[in-house]
């Protein structure tokens, strides 16, 4: 019976994808016929084809790239902007680590212009800026033993990102810079893994001067939109539908769509609605001309197991470890249920920015989180913001980024 249900779901997914491409084909034919002149004159943004380092240097900033090896063998790519475009590399600078959210990558911090990308703004403000890439995304698909073609490579969730990736990256940065502490800025899942890491590893928490959480997600009891709909899909079916490897990776097809569809003015808003569907966004606060660049880099992929962990979080309403089922839970945790992560145990000074219309970090979940933060030094809710305004919002510099610089200076 289970096989029949899974088979039917697979068929529906394949049918949906097939119909999607048929529709895309019709749109392309229509545009080729009626908009040939405009298409011929349209120039694809060169940043569509750039990696993170190229995005940085294209704006006139110095760029460095390193590989960090975790203790379970994953090889993570991290990017660095050591100083600003108009400053000289003299002496050491306070270090800031920026960590992206779910299905994203380090490009989130540098895909806008230099005056409204947080990575560039911090570099120009005198900070040594580092940007992480979680295991499994476009730039962190290496392992000492396993290939991404193997199921073993994808056996991870945000548990491992918190307990393996973050400690390895932070220790690498401290060793490279000679600093004793760093600032940490996390968006969405980038904040989730920090809550887990800093609450369960006190020694790691001592290496953080200040944690700045942007649209942070701890529990997802009250999400809205497609994430809320996942409550009606048993998490055990996720692997039956999507397999056991990667989920929504960046691909040649996505890049092709970015060039062929999103680069055409008539379809920029259509592509923007992909992000609206997943996370929600304020179209009046998004530079639609940058959509082709956003789409060419995100989604950057993750593991199906990570998505299953998030599905479990929606069902349970708790911030807890991956649920293997009662029998395997006893093997991994010595108890029948997965252990809870207690944000209250985190002692790092924390500043929080939240969105009043955020679909993933809902206001009710946010209220629950704020009660658990014993060392909360600041909270600001921006009523009009949704989940992507924190990284791409046109008004982000004066509504949030300037405040971030203020708090970094205050705690330096």
Q: What are the salient characteristics of this protein?
A:
single chain, 412 residues, alpha/beta, nine-stranded mixed β-sheet, two-stranded antiparallel ribbon, 17 helices
Short structural description:
Helix content is 43%, strand content 13%. It is α/β, with parallel strands linked by helices and 412 residues long.
- Which quaternary structure do these chains form? single chain
Largest sheet: 9 strands, mixed
The assigned structural class equals: alpha/beta
Shape: globular
Mean pLDDT metric = 86
Radius of gyration: 21 Å
H/E element sequence: HHHEEEHEEHEHHEHHEHHHEHHEHEHH
Number of strands: 11
Structure in words:
The protein is 43% helix and 13% strand. The chain is of the alpha/beta class. Strands 1, 2, 3, 4, 5, 6, 7, 10 and 11 form a nine-stranded mixed sheet that branches. Strands 8-9 form a two-stranded antiparallel ribbon. A hairpin with a 4-residue loop joins strand 1 and strand 2 (74-81).
What order do the helices and strands come in, and which of them pair?
Blueprint: H1 2-34, H2 36-41, H3 52-58, E1 64-69, E2 74-81, E3 95-99, H4 118-124, E4 128-131, E5 142-143, H5 158-177, E6 182-187, H6 189-200, H7 202-205, E7 208-214, H8 226-229, H9 238-242, E8 246-247, H10 252-262, H11 268-278, H12 291-297, E9 302-303, H13 304-316, H14 326-333, E10 350-355, H15 363-372, E11 376-382, H16 389-392, H17 396-411
Parallel strand pairs: 3-4, 3-6, 6-7, 7-10, 10-11
Antiparallel strand pairs: 1-2, 2-4, 2-5, 8-9
Helix pairs in contact: 5-6, 10-12
